[in-house]
Input
Amino acid sequence: MTAPVIGIACCRWTLEKDRPFHLADDDTLAAVRVAGGLPLLLPALGGALSHADLLPRLDGLLLPGSLSNIDPRRYGDEATPDDFIDPERDATTLALIRAAVDAGVPLFGVCRGMQEINVAYGGTLCRAVHEAPGRLDHREPAGDMATIYRPAHPVSLAHGGWLRRLSGLASVTVNSLHHQGVERLGQGLAVEALAPDGLIEALRVIGARRFAIGVQWHPEWALDERPLSRPLFDAFIAACRQRRTERTARLAVSIRREPVPA
Ligand SMILES: N[C@@H](CCC(=O)NCCCC(=O)O)C(=O)O
Output
């Protein structure tokens, strides 16, 4: 069996001279490869990325973190001029998420990716968690990469939840690099983990045929050093492998059914 193909949603950033580039971070690609997947970068083409063309070729969909924020108009809030948004990524991922889950494509959202799952299911975001009464500051500290991605706070894993079953743990300590967070949970989503201030740190799509999980932290960083990070990627890729097996079996049947030329 060849490696499952994992579509990784790119950001679209203008890096120089008004030339936009499609980007994904290297740690996410490395984590997918270590767990046995074949990363395939999905350009942020919005509506030009045909789901009918794409989804039958994908074994998994991964939505990585990003410095950019989801356009607040996507969840009914007002835009502010200085917000760093990425409309093309929004147009790509927000349309793709539910289509992927409905097609049985395993889905894994990290940080912005988890926020995208929430918005795709009709949820809203708090745009500055550190300013919300009773909330902790979830932003990263200044410093080198080890400091930025340091274990920052515990999260409690939901009783009877999927993450608790996977890890056998009641809580894990996670890194934290975000200033936005889930405000209203989307319809059809379940809480999988909470921070000490009650902020939702992980969620799951209820009734999804396969892995459909979002986490607010970054398991791709120091993959083998944190208790839940490698198991998360391994479980995601295992689900993708299962889809690949079924997908290739279906393909073989349809090829056998092709009439043999006389
Ligand atoms: N901009 C949003 C999402 C935060 C996020 O995804 N951070 C990732 C930072 C860079 C990385 O390591 O990918 C927010 O601030 O809430």
Notes: The domain at 5-257 is CATH 3.40.50.880 (Rossmann fold). The radius of gyration is 19 Å. The chain has one domain: 5-257.
